[in-house]
Amino acid sequence: MKLQNHLDNLRAKPEAYRRRFAFWSSLGITAVIGLFWLGSISGINISAGQAVSESVSRAGTPAQSLMAAVGALAGDVWSLATGPSKVDYASVQLQPVVTK
Questions:
Q1: Can you tell me whether residue 92 is helix, strand or coil?
Q2: Which residues contact 59 (CB under 8 A, 6 or more apart)?
Q3: 3-state secondary structure of 11
Q4: Is residue 21 a contact partner of residue 10, using CB atoms and an 8 Å limit?
Q5: Mean pLDDT of the chain
Q6: What angle, rounded to 10 degrees, do the helices at 2-12 and 15-59 form?
Q7: What are phi and psi of 94, to 5 degrees?
Q8: With 90 as the cut, is the pLDDT of residue 76 above it?
Q9: CA 19, CA 26: separation in Å to the nearest integer?
């Protein structure tokens, strides 16, 4: 009931006060949302930058990267053409997953 009483008191105030209250309330809520948004952006940029630098360091030269991509494509096409590979179930080990 406190919120209802607060709203009733706010309705009794002059219109200029209500507009000012609405403006500052919305500005405060927007600022909080903006701060959370900026915080999430800075975390994403750091990890994305690290991921890019790691990828660039592993890629080597452009020719090596191109040859690796062509080789991977050829392997994928070959596996699609020849069908699924046979799985030897004697070598597959299943272990239960423990969740907490």
A1: coil
A2: 65
A3: helix
A4: yes
A5: 80
A6: 120
A7: -100, 130
A8: no
A9: 11
Asked whether 81 and 74 are in contact (CB, 8 A), the reply is no
Q: pLDDT digits over 11-38, tens only? A: 999 999 999 999 999 999 999 999 888 8
- What amino acid occupies position 47? S
Residue 7 amino acid letter: L
Looking at the chain, how many residues does it have? 100
DSSP readout, 19-65? HHHHHHHHHHHHHHHHHHHHHHHHHHHHHHHHHHHHHHHHH-SHHHH
Report the alpha-carbon distance of residue 57 to residue 13 in Å, rounded.
65
Sequence ranges of the domains in the chain:
1-37
Give yes or no for a contact between 79 and 85, defined as CB atoms under 8 angstroms apart. yes
Phi, psi of 61, rounded to the nearest 5 degrees: -80, 160
Q: What's the predicted TM-score (pTM) here?
A: 0.41
Helix (H) or strand (E) holding 14: none
